[in-house]
Amino acid sequence: MTKTIEKVAAGLRKMDNKPDAFLFMEWYSEDFTWDAPDILGIPVFHTDNFLHNTDDKDCPFQPLWKDEKDYMMDVALFRRGYDEY
Predict the structure, then answer these.
(1) Which has the closest alpha carbon to 23: 53, 62, 60, 49?
(2) Does residue 64 contact residue 19 with C-beta atoms inside 8 Å?
């Protein structure tokens, strides 16, 4: 669990805009889940049915924001930081 927190923190450090929440994709790994209601003070919601950009990044967390802006770069930066940790 500590490594997951460190990976999320690394992803957050890469971003310009802190997300309002994370979506945790339950189907992403059969042997890993996130049971806490938040991570680093950011709420975590769960889903088992969500499509996201397919790439080589190994990240079950999807950043979410309340307002409607283009956050594609922030998502990519988060996933890169998460994966590179």
Answers:
(1) 62
(2) yes
Q: What is the pTM of this model?
A: 0.85
Length of the chain measured in residues: 85
Top pLDDT among 67 and 27 is at 67
Domain ranges within the chain, ordered by starting residue: 2-84
For 4-32, the pLDDT digits (tens) are 999 999 999 999 999 999 999 876 666 67
The continuous run of DSSP H or E covering 24 comes out as strand 21-25
Give the full edge-to-edge strand order of the sheet including 21-25: 38-39, 42-47, 21-25, 61-64
